Amino acid sequence: MGDLLHDGHGRRISDLRVSVTDRCNFRCQYCMPADGLPWLDRSAVLRFEEIERLVGIFAGMGVTDVRLTGGEPLVRRDFPRLARMLANVDGVEDLSLTTNGYLLERDATALVEAGINRVNVSIDSLQRDRFFQITRRDSLPQVLRGLDELAKHPEVQPIKVNAVAIRGFTEQEAIPFAEFARSTAFQVRFIEFMPLDADHAWSADQVLSGDELRAIIHAVHPLEELPREPNSTARVFRFADGGGEIGFINPVSEPFCADCNRVRITAEGRLRTCLFSIHETDLREPLRAGASDADIEGLIRDAVWRKELKHHVGEPGFRQPPRSMSAIGG
Ligand code: SF4
After folding, report:
1. CATH architecture group of domain 15-328
2. Distance 4 CA to ligand 1 centre (A)
3. Whose CA is nearest to atom 4 of ligand 1?
4. Would you kindly state where each structural domain of the chain is located, as residue ranges?
């Protein structure tokens, strides 16, 4: 194990998000256009062995948590085999997945057997017509069946349901999701809408803040805040009557950058040191040009040393990254 990976602000980096594809089978309004986006050429996307090698290099610098994202990771052919390869990388202690859940019913068992131990499922509405409205897919029943299939595996803990909060839409979802959190073992989180949409149509007045949502729920089901976990992105509350918990991820109204421990690799092998990075470091070309692990490690350490202190959303001069959420991964 080499020196632990730190940025120039003294933050230790222990969490790597890996986007395994830019493709997706949904067309969420806050993410991509109805017709989708021009997908990467397959040859441009990192091969399984390349992802495995990069994860190994990061693990050698003390990165212990790896989250697999997309686009939609489960549309990548043979994805469970990749998960198994990464679960076997020395130093990887936690392997998790972010998915829209559409293929979970098919893949749940294979994912668990491969070594996935935490899963976040993105669901923005529990009402079939409204789910269709926001994702442009009539797939809620299928996604809920996938959740149930995953829930058959107690070794996957926690299973989180993440809902993007948008003003004028999510207010009506607050209580149904609170009831869902109270009646199931799934941990519900609301995520504020961020300026990472492909249409660049985001505006601050579309952001429904975590505080506003919490107030809607608290009025019906009183909430009490739980202590914040280090590096956590969520403010988590328990229902005062003991009926479970619910969380709010507020990157716009309450940024949590101070103890950020995360960096990302895109599907084509670019290192992003922040979700809102404007600059990226290409790791694929050096990989394919025969660079040694030490060379790649040097590139990573240099880039991470220059990691952004925080995002500047809502500040004068903020520039939305040219790359959209579907091409970054959560
Ligand atoms: S915005 Fe950037 S610095 Fe802030 S928490 Fe997210 S990744 Fe970390």
Report:
1. Alpha-Beta Barrel (3.20)
2. 19
3. 257
4. 15-328
